[in-house]
Design brief:
With about 325 residues, the chain is of the alpha+beta class. The protein starts with a helix and ends with a helix. It is flat and about 65 Å long. α1 runs antiparallel to α5 and α9 runs antiparallel to α10. The protein contains eleven helices and twelve strands.
Length: about 325
């Protein structure tokens, strides 16, 4: 049982690690987003190489307190991961994950599309060695499937630059999309995905109807002047994170079922910001709230928040000082 639980996790980790030339598949000219099937209700896109190349990441890691025996630098941590799992995230360009989360208790439909330069034989050999299990092989629409013992999870190499790992059904659907015999993801989900641009990380999620109902019934939270009822008509939620130099940008982009609902939500958020800025006693928080930008475009509401590394450090010092004063 433990093997069956651990195997998919090791499989996904190994998929995003082994990068080397050697696969002889024909050229594949579709992008990851063009392979996502219509059934997907969640898409997440991570620019792995750009994140790991950010010098701020190494500085942040170096500043974190560590226990004896733990890697002291970012490079040491990466090397330890390679030695223990064979995974080297520094070799990955991009990962796109898609899945069907309409049934929250189920995880039987998820795919991970990785871009890099993949060695088919090396990758498969490493996964088998680390899991202690052997792949069986199958075929689907001209592609070779490497499947684990229960055939629930598979890997397929679309080319030497791209592969998909995940549940077999999700992989087969993506192959069908690539051949034009199954519809690719479209509609508001993809429109929201495109609106988020090209940040380091972005995700779009289709909210299930029960989530709407829960928000509709949620009262205002005590003295917090933001009624959740204003957000009950959200059907798609978009999130994005980006970093340029010292500036971190967080973007939240919900899509509403109507323009009127989006307008009501904007008015609610703008009112809450004004109330908070008028009542807060911490100047640093007031300044940060003043940087919140709320935009409305058709049925999309976009909330943009920017903060610099120095502002984060200053805010942490302020809270730490206030916390210590409370004990004097």
């Amino acid at each position: 049982m433990a093997k069956r639980v651990l195997f998919p996790l090791v499989l996904v980790l190994a998929v995003v690690s082994m990068v080397a030339p050697g696969c002889s598949e024909p050229e594949f000219d579709l992008t990851p987003i063009e392979l996502v099937p219509q059934r997907a209700s969640m898409i997440a896109d991570v620019q792995v190489s750009q994140i790991l190349e950010d010098p701020g990441l190494k500085e942040t890691f170096a500043g974190v307190e560590k226990e004896p025996g733990q890697p002291q630098t970012f490079d040491e941590a990466m090397q330890q991961m390679v030695e223990e799992t064979g995974v080297d995230l520094r070799d990955i360009d991009r990962i796109l994950v898609f899945g069907d989360i309409t049934a929250l208790e189920q995880t039987d439909y998820v795919g991970l599309i990785a871009e890099g330069d993949f060695s088919e034989e090396q990758l498969i050999s490493d996964i088998e060695q680390k899991t202690g299990e052997k792949f069986t092989t199958g075929e689907y629409k001209g592609y070779k499937l490497y499947q684990e013992g229960f055939e629930e999870y598979s890997i397929v190499f679309l080319s030497e630059k791209m592969l998909i790992a995940g549940t077999t059904k999700a992989i087969e659907d993506a192959i069908d999309v690539s051949k034009g015999i199954r519809d690719k993801a479209s509609g508001v989900l993809i429109d929201t995905y495109n609106q988020l641009g090209n940040p380091l990380v972005k995700a779009v999620i289709e909210l299930p109807e029960e989530a709407w109902a829960a928000l509709d019934e949620e009262p205002a939270m005590g003295d917090f002047p933001l009624s959740m009822e204003a957000f009950a008509d959200i059907d798609i939620l978009g999130l994005a994170f980006n970093k340029e130099a010292e500036t971190i940008t967080i973007e939240i982009t919900p899509h509403f079922l109507s323009t009127d609902s989006a307008q009501d939500a904007r008015d609610t958020i703008s009112g809450a910001i004004s109330i908070f800025r008028g009542t807060l006693d911490v100047p640093e928080l007031k300044d940060l709230l003043g940087k919140l930008e709320v935009r409305l475009s058709d049925s999309w509401l976009t909330i943009i928040f920017e903060i610099t590394q120095s502002e984060i450090e200053q805010l942490m010092e302020t809270f730490q000082s206030d916390f210590m004063d409370g004990f004097e």
